[in-house]
Design brief:
The chain has about 350 residues and is an alpha/beta fold. It is about 25% helix and about 30% strand.
Length: about 350
Amino acid sequence: MITKISATIPHRAPPCLPVVVIVDAQNVRGQAREVLGSPRLPTVPGIRTALQPFGFDAVEIYVGIGTRAAGSNSQALHREIGKNLEYARSITKDGGRILNGALRDNSSGGLRNFEEKLVDVLCGIQVARSAYAIRHEGHPARAIVILSKDMDLDPAAHFSEHLAVPVVTAATSVINNRPGIRWLLLGEQEMLSMVGRDGQYCGSSRRNEIAEYAWKRYGRNYDWQVLNPERRHGRVDVLLRHASGVAGLASSRLFGNRQPPRGQVVRLHPTGVDLGERGKDFPLLELGVDGMASPCSTLRTATVTARISPTTAEACFPGSTDPINIDIPRDGILVGATLLVKQVQGR
C-alpha cells in the first residue's frame, strides 16, 4: 500500500550576501536630485532597505561627509558644517560610521557653493581597509558596495578586486558606461528608499507634472515660492517651487537682476522646460510673467520605440520614421510611452 503524503514547503528566500557599504553622502544627494528632483541625504535604514532586494545585507556602513572647515570659516560655512554634523550624528545613532572630510566655502556673487575636500580620498582608503579586513582579518562581509558615481574610487575598487574581494559600484547613471568595474544601476525606488519622499510629486510623477504644466497648463499663472539662486548654463537664475513640489526657474531679470527674498510668493506662467545637464540636473519648468497662446515651440511629443541601453531610449516623432536617441532615467519609460521632448538647436 502506497500512501501519498503532501505538504506545503515554505518558500525561503536565499540568504543575502553580507557587504560593507561605503557612501559619499553628497554624491548620493546629487543623485537624488537627478532622479527625484530633490537633493536629499541618505539614511542608514534607507541604505539597508534599498540594497536588500538586490541580495545585499549591509552589515557595516561608512558615510563620508564634510564635518570641519577647510580655509576661512565664514558664518555660512559654519551653518553648513552644523547641518552636516547633525546629519553625522543621525548616521552614528543608526549604527553607521562617519568618514570625516572637510568643507570649503567657495560662494561668490550671492550663490552658495560649498566644496567637499578629502571625502573621496577617505572613501577610497576605507574601500582598501575593508577589502584587507575581509581578505585577511576574518571580517564577516564578503563584498563591498560603493554608493557613488565618482570614478576617482575606481582604483580602490580595482585594489579590492586584486585581493579577491568583489566590489559593486552603485549609482543612478554614468557607471554603466565605465569599463572595468562591476556596476549596479539604481532607480527611483532605490533612491526613495535611501532618502525618502519630498512633496506630493517626486521622480517620474514630478516629471509628468512638469510635462503637464508645459504642454497643457501653459495658459494661466500659478503661485511660486522663491527658494534660492540656481546656476544653470553658466548663468544664475532664481529657483522657485510650487506647493505640489514641482520646481521652476525664472530669469533674475524678472526681479531686477537681484535675488528676491527666500519665501516670497510670485505669480508666473509656465513657458517651457529647462533640461539642465544629463547626469546632474532634474528638469525644471521655465517661468515667465507673460502667458502663452500655445506650448513652447521647442517642445514636441515622441513615442518610445525601443530601449537601447539602461539609460537610453529610441523614439520617433509623429509621422517620422527616423528615430532619435533620448537620455532617460532607468525607470518609468516603457516602449510605446509618449514623451515630451525638447529639441535643442543643432540636434
